[in-house]
Design a protein that fits this description.
Blueprint: H1 5-32, E1 39-44, E2 68-70, E3 79-81, H2 97-112, E4 117-122, H3 125-133, E5 139-144, E6 147-152, H4 158-167, E7 174-177, H5 189-212, H6 216-241, H7 249-274, H8 276-292, H9 307-311, H10 315-328, H11 335-354, H12 370-376
Length: 380
């Protein structure tokens, strides 16, 4: 029974509104609830101070000035409530000497805001900087004889860097950016804005390869070729033309190429197995859900959990993390991201080979014409 145009139009409107009702909280809720959640930071006490039990402080804590992060602490609007300068752990007044100051800061972090920070103790400032450059922590509080310092890495997360910087405002603590963003992208906006077009075009390539390339080998060649070309092309644009990404050219190109291949191959593979429904599933999971949970402009630890962690197991979150490591940290901390993207790329290529949807049908053998049969009869 055919539906009338009015009924069909009404059903379309209802379905679209239902999808909107799901997408709005998917994108808005993580952004509206940004706050530190087990955010790794270090505390350096040059005189050998350590946690009372000799280990890392339990997860939890406040911003370094003892104040709470209000409403998520977004990059452009992070504020800190309470925590006056004379009460701040960063001011060093809570304990005598660097060692005692480190323990006091850890205790205040644990007591006032449990679950916000995961504290690791290191020996001194250089050790704290090494942990930041290895992407083990996002920042550090360094207790020096001359006064406390807060070390940040805006390249790891502009949002976290701004949060920690604002947290110690007015305490007299010096802030040092150990791994700064590129001078041509001081807020990191270009990084996020330049990454999403690669995700969109990779989804598109995966769909086009399924729809218009009808042979398995040709699909594999198209996907692998796209990954290589996309990596070098996007790296050339972002590093050579726009100048918004530093780092080794080949390393950055490899990171971009692996991400492009992972997304495109996953799309083609899903479609090869599930048909056109696979294209919709791939776009929904990898782009809509993956983009909302990627934390590109923030950090996974600032998103509500477990969603922030789930985002790192999807291509966009893993790809953004890998690109940061390649561009700013010489590949440090990239192991999980490489494993995730390699799994998507490999699985997608395997499904592309195994799937039968959209392949060119083999020609059927028909009856041989009489003229052809006569030609096949050997002459006597």
């Amino acid at each position: 029974m055919r539906r009338s145009p009015v009924v069909a139009g009404t059903l379309i409107a209802i379905v679209v509104v239902a999808v909107q009702a799901l997408l709005v909280p998917l994108f808005a809720a993580p952004a509206a609830n940004l706050a530190p959640r087990d955010l790794p930071i270090a505390i350096a006490a040059p005189n050998g101070g350590a946690a009372p039990n000799g280990g890392a402080a339990p997860n939890g804590g406040a911003a370094p000035n003892g104040g709470a992060v209000s409403n998520g602490g977004a990059a452009d609007g992070a504020t800190v409530d309470g925590g006056a300068a004379d009460q701040s752990p960063a001011s060093g007044g809570a304990a005598n000497g660097p060692a005692g100051g480190a323990a006091a800061i850890a205790a205040r972090l644990e007591a006032e805001h449990p679950g916000a920070f995961a504290v690791t103790f290191v020996a001194d400032g250089p050790a704290a900087d090494a942990a930041i450059k290895d992407r083990e922590v996002y920042g550090a509080i360094v207790m020096n004889a001359a006064g406390p310092e807060v070390h940040v890495a805006s390249a790891a997360s502009p949002t976290v860097s701004a949060l920690l910087t604002q947290a110690v405002a007015g305490t007299g603590a010096q802030v040092r950016d150990v791994v700064p963003l590129d001078v041509d992208d001081p807020r990191g906006a270009g990084f996020a804005a330049g990454f999403l077009p690669l995700a969109i075009t990779s989804l598109l390539v995966g769909a086009l390869v399924f729809l218009f390339v009808r042979q398995r080998v040709a699909r594999l060649v198209a996907l692998l070729g796209y990954g290589v070309l996309a990596g070098f092309a996007v790296a050339a644009v972002q590093q050579g033309w726009l100048g918004i990404l530093p780092g080794d050219n080949l390393l950055v190109a490899a990171a971009l190429g692996l991400f492009a291949l992972a997304v495109a191959a996953a799309m083609t593979g899903l479609a090869a197995v599930l048909g056109h429904g696979g294209l919709g599933l791939g776009a929904l999971v990898m782009f809509l859900v993956g983009n909302a949970l990627a934390g590109i402009a923030a950090a996974p630890e600032l998103l509500p959990q477990p969603w922030g962690e789930i985002g790192q197991w999807l291509p966009i979150g893993a790809g953004a993390s890998l690109l940061r490591s390649a561009a700013y940290f010489d590949g440090a901390g990239a192991a999980q991201a490489v494993a995730v993207l390699t799994a998507y790329a490999g699985t997608g290529l395997i499904l592309t080979v195994l799937g039968r949807r959209g392949l060119m049908a083999a020609p059927k053998a028909g009856p041989v014409p009489a003229e052809a049969r006569e030609e096949l009869v050997p002459a006597r």
